[in-house]
Amino acid sequence: MKKLGMLLFLSIMLTGCGGDDQKKMGQEYKFSKVNVKDENRLGSNQNTGDFGYMRHESGDNVKNGNKVPYLNRQKLADMISDMVLQLPNIKDVGTLVTDEEVLIGYKTTSKDRNAAADQVKMTAFSVVPRYYHVYVSDEKGMINKIEQYQAMNKDTENIEGVIGRLIQQMKKAPQGKKWNYGENPNGEMNGETNQMRDEMTGK
Predict the structure, then answer these.
(1) Mean pLDDT along residues 62-88
(2) Spelled out in words, what is the top-level CATH class assigned to the domain 73-201?
């Protein structure tokens, strides 16, 4: 009878220990599972980010044929017009984007024409590549005049001279503040050679 009691006691103890071991194993498994899940999640985020990134190191097989990414001028003109129209006191706007200039005609109710011109110009500068020049005008009829140039392209005869004359007309209107030291309000550097204006003036 004593032997039976001892066996029963040992059986209960072993069962309890086994339960503890199983419980510990379950905790370890659960901990391990969470770690794997986190790693997968982090890896997924790293591979599907919204930013563009590329790293090159010395010795890499660099592609010499890389060019400047394609610029959709139609969408850029649409974006600039939309952004300018959200400025205070701007009621109408037309934007033409060439391969190196942004021409913006607009109507404003502001009494400070220079301040309005600066806002319009800086809005365009905020989204175009740095090498672009921006010209603005609030002169009457300028929006319709700019619109007439939308069907032109780089193959149009004397396109530089045609656009150059339009730019000169636009610059009769306020252009806002200087872009920065060494550059005029349109983003042109002092003494910068511009093929368009050179052709227009016969240089």
Answers:
(1) 81
(2) alpha beta
